[in-house]
Amino acid sequence: DAGVTQSPTHLIKTRGQHVTLRCSPISGHKSVSWYQQVLGQGPQFIFQYYEKEERGRGNFPDRFSARQFPNYSSELNVNALLLGDSALYLCASSFGAYSYNSPLHFGNGTRLTVT
Amino acid sequence: KQEVTQIPAALSVPEGENLVLNCSFTDSAIYNLQWFRQDPGKGLTSLLLIQSSQREQTSGRLNASLDKSSGRSTLYIAASQPGDSATYLCAVRGGIGMEPSGSRLTFGEGTQLTVNP
Fold it and tell me: If we measure between CA atoms, which residue out of B34, B33, B37 comes closest to residue B112?
């Protein structure tokens, strides 16, 4: 079975532009979470979605938004890009919204560079 | 606010050595703790998941322990190999004030491990 897949793998944008990152969870997983990992730091939680509803949001500005589709795939959108948005964006999936016993499975991430 | 600290930040050892990576967290009201491995520029690979009711988990040469009351976990790697070189991240799920969904992981900054041949 395919793992969590993310696209694109790399992206270069200019300050002020908008970006859309995509994620397909593991087959059967209904929950998708997004994390931002700045170089040299641990990942920071951005959003969790389950059954197309937002179930959690980290401490990120409103420029960051996300949505989940009926097939459980997800998009992360970032508007008005800043240099500080340059990071590895990781998507993770798990079986359910309350699956405390289920580990999160991560994709390989999208490397975003803002110039 | 849950905070996770990992010590040391970097570690370099000769091949074959047994080693211990440390993780501490400030809020003991966690659901579980997960150890990950990250290779440069790559995503995270889950190594071990320990539930809050468990004391340890083992997978091959890896053993992770959890002392929830003291807010500590250790990852023990036996007979280290050059292929073990990577960054190891500790993450906890849950804590007071966290979402009921429990999906949010709070990560440490990782320990960068180098195993020299």
Answer: B37
Task: Tally the C-alpha atoms within 13 A of residue B41's C-alpha that lie toward its C-beta.
Answer: 4
State the pLDDT at residue B117. 95
Query: Residue B31 is nearest to which of A56, A94, A100, comparing CB atoms?
Result: A100
Determine contact, residues A48/A54, Cβ cutoff 8 Å: yes
Could you read off the pLDDT of B66-88 as tens digits, one per residue?
999 999 999 999 999 999 999 99
AA identity, residue B100: P
Q: Identify the residue whose tokens are 């988990």.
A: B57
Report pLDDT for B96. 65
Measure the CA–CA gap between A90 and A33, rounded to whole angstroms.
Answer: 8
Beta bridge partners of A6: A23
> Are β-strands B86-93 and B32-38 bridged in parallel, bridged antiparallel, or unpaired?
antiparallel
Which residues, other chains included, contact A61 with Cβ-Cβ below 8 Å and sequence gap of 6+? none
CA B67 – CA B28 distance, rounded (Å): 9
Can you tell me the distance from the alpha carbon of B23 to that of B111, in angstroms, rounded to the nearest whole number? 9
Radius of gyration of chain B (CA): 14
Are A114 and A82 spatial neighbours (Cβ–Cβ below 8 Å)? Answer: yes
User: Which residue from A minimizes the CA distance to B6?
Assistant: A42
Which candidate in A30, A90, A106, A111 is best for mutational testing of the B interface (most B CBs within 10 A)?
A106
**What is the distance between the alpha carbons of residues A99 and A91, in angstroms, rounded to a whole number?**
17
Low-confidence ranges of chain A (pLDDT < 70): 1, 97-101
Q: What is the structure's pLDDT at B7?
A: 94
